[in-house]
Amino acid sequence: MVDQKRRYDEASLNKALEALYHGFRAITAHPDEELAALGYSRVHHRILYFIGRNPDCSVNELLTVMRVSKQYLNRPLRRLIGDGYVLSRQDRYDRRVKRLRLSTAGKYLEDSLTGNQRDRLAAVFAQAGRQAEKGWRKVMALLDEQGQTD
User: Fold this and answer.
1) Given its phi and psi angles, is residue 96 left (phi above 0), alpha (psi -120 to 50 degrees) or beta?
2) Rounded to whole angstroms, how far apart are CA atoms 32 and 24?
3) Residue 1 above 80 pLDDT?
4) For all residues of the chain together, what is the average pLDDT?
5) Residue pair 54/62 in contact by the 8 Å Cβ criterion
6) Cα–Cα distances in Å, from 53 out to 47, 111, 114?
7) How far apart are CA 25 and CA 21, in angstroms?
8) Domain limits of the chain?
9) What's the CATH class of domain 9-149?
10) Strand order across the 57-58 sheet
11) I need a labelling partner for 22 at 20 to 30 A (CA). Which of 11, 69, 92, 123 fits?
């Protein structure tokens, strides 16, 4: 097996990390401002995002797709439900299961937060080109795979 660490010097890896940190800051800046105005944080955005992509998911399904614990999810999810951004109803077949979906206000908020991020990604992908986009997606997928095995 090739030692991946030896292929790159520390300075180039530090530059890659700095690019990751700065890129993450850039793509989260607008949503963070909007969330802060509501007294929310990034976890609230993540919950809205994943429920928006998985309407009528159960709480356990949401935990799985987000890869978080119940403790991490509990308080912010309850707040989003209490504030009317997320709707919770009992499953038709199993009353112990809660199904989640975004309310109209939740869809609007999620679209405002995530729409800005989609627009930014579309603009930079168009500027960087298809090959750069494919490379970025591959790097992100490999990072995700490594994170799941650590």
Assistant:
1) alpha
2) 11
3) no
4) 93
5) yes
6) 10, 11, 11
7) 6
8) 9-149
9) mainly alpha
10) 57-58, 98-102, 86-90
11) 69
Each residue of 2-14: b (16+ CB within 10 Å) or e? eeeeeeeeeeeee
Q: What does the block give as tokens for 137?
A: 């997606």
First to last CA, the chain: 18
Confidence (pTM):
0.89
DSSP string, 106-149: HHHHHHHHHHHHHHHHHHHHHHH-HHHHHHHHHHHHHHHHHHHH
Please give the structure tokens belonging to residue 75.
């308080």
**What are the CA-CA distances from residue 32 to residues 42, 99, 132 (Å)?**
7, 27, 27
With a CB cutoff of 8 Å and minimum separation 6, the contacts of 98 are 58, 59, 88, 89, 90, 91
Phi, psi of 42 (to 5 degrees): -60, -30
Indicate the helix (H) or strand (E) that contains 27.
Answer: helix 10-37
Q: Which residues contact 104 (CB under 8 A, 6 or more apart)?
A: none
